[in-house]
Amino acid sequence: MSRILVPVDFSAQSIQAVRFAAAYAKDKHDLTLLHVIQPFPSRYVVNKLGKEGVEKIQLDEAKEDLKPLVEIIEAAGIAYQLEIVFGNAHEEIAKHAKGEYAAVVMGTRGYGRMTGFLKQSVSYPTIHDSKIPVFLISEETDAADFPWRNVLLTVDGSDQAMAAVNKVIGLSEGMDVSFTLLTVVTPPVAYTGMYGVGWEDTATLEEWGRETLRPYEELLDERQVPFESKVLIGDPAMLIRETAQEKEASLIALGHHGLGGIAGTLVGSVTFKTIHRAKTPLLIVKS
């Protein structure tokens, strides 16, 4: 039986992530709850009480504050272990994710890209560095849909998108799941003059989209997975969120190209834009 890594703090997002992980893990996976305690910032207090004394206080407080999360796992009857370590959250999660885990499940506050960077978001560096799939769960997700029933597969012709489709099919084995395959074509930059936008041949853009979908449709047919296909034209992140709402998707699967927070901001990463204020659970996969 494989394991799921669930980094947790004391936030509402972490509580939802634990609920999601428990719903998915049942009868299939064990869970590791990982809580990272930041080193105490005051040298004066550490010197006064001693490092061991400070860490004992922090450890006791963490165990007490984590009880609501542990109770969720125990009520679900899921095998788990709780690991509490001292250090940098991002570094400790990355270190643990190199172990024998099937996926990472963690809460996200849905910050914008620059806000997330400034507030030292843990989810952004985790999806950038992790070699295994990462589920991101917000506080506003509907726990009644956990783990998932309707999956929105967002693809762009990349190897990462193909990896995401393969991965979510594998993770959905044994579940009654419907799939929507979506590609969004961004119109070429066009001069807007007195007669309007220069690019008007939407049929060509739709044909590009159908060509993009073909390899994924062949894969889904080969795996005997029922699905429907959609080609949309416009802003990818906005249309992904709108389609997820329209289809009542309980999971959005995305391939990630591996750009970091700053690089993703500069080039307009669809992954980071989709994370921003996302209410639907996300599965981020790198090839």
Automatic annotation (TrEMBL):
Belongs to the universal stress protein A family. Residues 2-137, 148-286 form the UspA domain. It comes from the Bacteria. This is Universal stress protein. CDD domains: USP-like.
